[in-house]
Amino acid sequence: MGHALTMGQTPRKPRLPVINLRDAGTLIGLLVIGAVFAASAPSFLTQHNLINILQQSSINACVALGMTLVIISGGIDLSVGPTAALSAVITATLVVSGMPLPIALLAGLATGLLCGFVNGALIAVAGLQPFIVTLGTLSLYRAMALIFTNGNPVLGLSPSFRHLFNGSIGIFPIPVLIVGVASLVAWCVLSKTPLGEYILAVGGNEEAARVAGVPVVRTKIATYMISGLAASLGAMILIGRLGAAEPVLGNLWELDAIAAAAIGGASLMGGKGSIVGTLLGAVVLGAMRNGLTLLNVQAFYQLLATGIIIIAAMLVDRFTRGTA
C-alpha cells in the first residue's frame, strides 16, 4: 500500500540509463554483423564505407526517433512516409519559388507537426485506434502530396539548400551530425523531462496514468507531433541529398522505423524503449543492407531480412518482458 498513487501525483518512473542491457545486446549484434560482413567483403570496414553506412542510416534513424516515442506511449505511426512526402514537396515548392530558406524549412517542419497533431487528436481525443487512424492518414497525406504536385516531382532545389543537408564537417556528413543532435534532444526529452515520464507512464498503463493525473491526451498528441516533426526532418535530409522532392517519397519508411525501434528494444506493447537502442537498431539495418549490397544480394532479400528482424525482435520482447 505504501506505493499507491494519489490523485494528481505523477507516477515516478526510474530514469532511463544511457545504455541498458538490451542496448548492449543490440551493440553486440551490430559487432557480429560487422564481423561477418568484414570477413565476406574486405571493403566493408574501410573508413569510407563506415561513414557511408552512417549516412545511409541517418534518415531512418531520424524517423525512428519519433517512432520510438510513439511506440513507448503505446501507439504506432504508419503515416511517417507520406508525412515526409507532403513536407518535402511543400518545402521544395517554396524553395524553387524563391522563398527564403528559413521560411521554407519552417513550413516543411510545421507540416510534419500538423500531420502529427491530426493523428494525435484523432487517437487521443476521438478515441480511435492508432493503427486504423495512421493507416487512414497514410493514404490521406500521400494523396495530398500527389494532388499538391499533380503527381510530378519538384525539381531544381537551390545549391544552398542542398549544401545545408548534403555537406560535411570534417569527415562526418551533415545528416549524421543533425541526427546526432536530434538524438541527444530525444534522449533528454525521454530521460530528463516530465514529458518523458508521462510517455513511459501512458505506455506502461494508460488508465493508471490517467488516475495519477498524467495529461494523457496532451502526452499522446505530443508524441505524434514529435513523430511528424522527425519524419519532416528526415525528408529535408533526403531532398537535400537528391536535389528534388517526389510526392511518392518515403515509401516503407514506417517499416524501417518500426524495425529500428524494435531492434533497439522498444516494446510494441508500449512502456519500454531506448533512444540509444533505436540508433543502434537503425545502424544495424544500415550495416546489414550495405553488407548485402556489397555481396550483390538483391534488394527484395533485404526487405525479407527486415521483416524477419521485426518478428524476431517482437519474439525477444515477448519472452523477456516478464523478466524485465
From TrEMBL:
Name of the featured protein: ABC transporter membrane spanning protein
Sample GO molecular function, one term: transmembrane transporter activity
TM region(s), chain numbering: 24-45, 57-76, 88-114, 121-144, 164-190, 224-245, 257-287, 299-316
Keyword Calcium among UniProt keywords: no
Keyword list, A-Z: Cell membrane, Membrane, Transmembrane, Transmembrane helix
Species name: Tanticharoenia sakaeratensis NBRC 103193
Membrane topology classification: Multi-pass membrane protein
CDD domains: TM_PBP1_transp_AraH_like
Predominant cellular place of this UniProt entry's protein: membrane
N-terminal signal peptide: none
Sections of the chain in a coiled coil: none
An example Gene Ontology CC term for this record: plasma membrane
